[in-house]
Amino acid sequence: MSVSTDELISEITGIVAEELGLSPDAVSPDADLRAVEGADSVKVLRVVARIERSHDVELEDEEVFGASTIREVAEVLKQALTETAAV
Amino acid sequence: MTVEDHLVKHHVIENPAAQDQTVEDHIGLPWYVLEDYRCFGCSPHNPHGIQLRFTHHGDGLRTAFSLGRAHESYPGVVHGGLLGVIADEIMGNLVVLRTGLIPFTTGMRLRYVLPVIVGGGYDCVAKVRDGGGQLVHTEAEIREDGGALVATATASYQTVSLDAAHARMSLDTSEIDRLRRALAARTATTATSPGTLSEEPHVSVD
Q1: Residues of chain B neighbouring A58 (CB-CB closer than 8 A)
Q2: What local confidence, expressed as pLDDT, does residue B97 receive?
Q3: Which of B47, B121, B125, B139 has the smallest count of CB within 10 Å of its CB?
Q4: Distance (Å, rounded) from C-alpha B150 to C-alpha B166?
Q5: Where is the Thioesterase domain (chain B) (predicted)?
Q6: CB-CB: which of A49, A56, A58 is closest to B113?
Q7: Which of B100, B80, B98 is nearest to B138 (CA)?
Q8: Mean pLDDT in chain B?
Q9: Does A34 or A18 have the greater pLDDT score?
């Protein structure tokens, strides 16, 4: 069963909001993650680690650190999930 | 001395966090029946090692650790490679205790989140993700005493019987016999999900 990008965006938005102590409504999927209030590189790494654990995937550093927004992270995750499912 | 006597034998350790765990708390690893084993990660006999001790943590294991300047990278920061040692050590011993087999690491990946500080208190916990196939897959995470995540790890282990593995180890017949009984004893007391992990060797080592 494939997960839609919108579902992944919603999930990642929840994780980002939790890590930053914000309401999910305050986090836009198209905002620059590193420019969101309270964000820093460690918090972004925590978000990445949580996503990897919850989906049992390993995201490529080049791709995940190249992503600026939640939507882009969701697309990286969706691609990784697709590749995992294809194995 | 019986196998069980060996398993609860008190060891002098140098890892201060490990010293907080009493003899009754920590798990007697099968390797303890080997008086002079020198595992860098878990031997109490290796003065250059980190002398980890483990306790049960749900279906997994937990270890507390605090490393000193001998394990430094940048000033005041623990060398990141040692987090791999700790993660590998706890996950590998978890596989030993769950299967009674000898695991060889086939792959491991770490996600570093925060630096580990010299003298700081940390916890590492590990659990088996799945073990129904050729490999046993495990995961671990390291957190500060306060709870902040500092690293996650995933690994895969190929398990082999002691009979198959001992050709690659420096053990005499008596040690192999003691270790075989200790592996069987530990597996009998710690295996909680026998349906998920095979107790038969997956591969042979020639």
Answers
A1: 109, 154
A2: 95
A3: B47
A4: 36
A5: 76-150
A6: A49
A7: B98
A8: 84
A9: A18
Instruction: List CB contacts of B103: < 8 A, sequence separation 6 or more.
Output: B92, B95, B96, B136, B157, B158, B159
pLDDT in tens, B146-162: 899 999 999 999 999 99
Both tokens of residue A50?
Answer: 């949580």
Among B109, B113, B137, the strongest candidate for a mutation testing the A interface, having the largest count of A CBs within 10 A, is B113
User: Chain B partners of A45 at a C-beta cutoff of 8 Å?
Assistant: 111-114
User: B52-61, B105-114, B132-141: lowest mean pLDDT where?
Assistant: B132-141
Indicate whether this complex's ipTM tops 0.85. no
- Give tens-digit pLDDT for A44-79: 889 999 999 889 899 998 988 889 999 999 999 999
Q: Look up residue B121 and give its two tokens.
A: 């208190």
Cβ separation B111–A52 shorter than 8 A: yes
A56 touches chain B (CB under 8 A): yes
Answer whether B152 sits within 8 Å of A46, measured CB to CB: no
CB atoms within 10 A of CB A27: 21
> Tokens in use for A70?
């939640």
Which tokens in the block code for residue B29? 């690893």
A-chain residue closest to B139, CA distance:
A53
- Provide the shortest C-alpha distance from residue A26 to chain B (in Å): 24
pLDDT of A25 strictly over 50: yes
CB A26 within 8 A of CB A87: no
Domains recognised in chain A with CATH numbers: 5-86 (1.10.1200.10)
Q: How close, in Å, is residue B106 to chain A by CA atoms?
A: 16
Q: What's domain B3-190's superfamily in CATH?
A: Hotdog Thioesterase (3.10.129.10)
pLDDT tens for residues B74-111?
Answer: 999 999 999 999 999 999 999 999 999 999 999 999 99
